[in-house]
Amino acid sequence: DAKRDGRGVARLFDEGMDENIRLRRAIEGGLSLAIEKGELSLVYQPIIAREGLEVVGFEALLRWNTEDHGPISPAVFIPIAEESNLIHELGDWVLDQSLAVLQGWPGQYISVNFSPRQFRRHNFVGRIMESVQRAGIEPNRVQIEITETAIFDDADRAADTLYKLRQMGFRIALDDFGTGYSSLYNIRKFALDCLKIDRSFIDGMGRERESAAIVQSIVHLGRSLGLGVIAEGVETEAQVQALRVAGCSHLQGYYFSRPVALEIANEIAERRYLIDETVVEDESVAK
Ligand code: C2E
Ligand code: MG
Ligand code: MG
Ligand code: MG
């Protein structure tokens, strides 16, 4: 009967929850050992300037290949790490690796993702400066990617942090722009270098008028504030053309290159010109 069904559903739901919690704990446990087990690596995706179509930088993206269960997506494990101090351990590792690879590249910058908790960490500015100095890297070769969530919760403190970072010469990019709840008005308060248009809008461009309109307004907004605008998730020739016409300053996405291992990134960096063949990170998802 209905009552019994209700209980059954409730029990199933509980079991689902338990399963979920077990999974999270397993991921947490695995992650805490991932560095010493050598299971982490970075892949690098080029960022291309609209003018001249040169590779001006690379975004570093974290990969976790577990011994027991194969690769786990950062979209899964970063939010779990973000709930504890594990994110700091991972973040420090990512930054040190990123700075080390920069030494091998002629003139590009490295763009590093920082989660909200990393950004709000005590003495974030001092720590990042220390790492960069230790590595002997100019801050202008490091782009800090943060999301709207990181800066709009405590806007005054965030504005202060960004101002200091920018004074020191770091580049600041606002990632996944358009998906958060930033008021356009408040954007002015923050010392930024560029906006990264979220790939959901790029994806919708050819299909719905709204996406193209949103892309166009973000480009206008960026331009009127003197900011660069990077389109992420560019996959097709048609998108490239539309984004160039819209006046987007930088492009990034599978059309140019998937995120690739260091040896391939080194080749791309040295060539310093647009590659037109798609370099494949994972054969199983190749087109
Ligand atoms: P994100 O920073 O917005 O990175 C862009 C994501 O889109 C990456 O996924 C990238 O592989 C993917 N992508 C790039 N071009 C295309 C394209 O043309 N088409 C499609 N469909 N996807 C494309 P990934 O590497 O799985 O990373 C997911 C998210 O995990 C990142 O989003 C970022 O928020 C987070 N993340 C990755 N590495 C790190 C890290 O080192 N630290 C922190 N805090 N977060 C990271
Ligand atoms: Mg990013
Ligand atoms: Mg992004
Ligand atoms: Mg994104």
TrEMBL record:
The segment(s) forming the EAL domain are 24-273
- What name does the UniProt record give this protein? EAL domain-containing protein
Native organism is Sphingomonas alpina
Which residues of the parent chain are present? 328 to 614 of 621
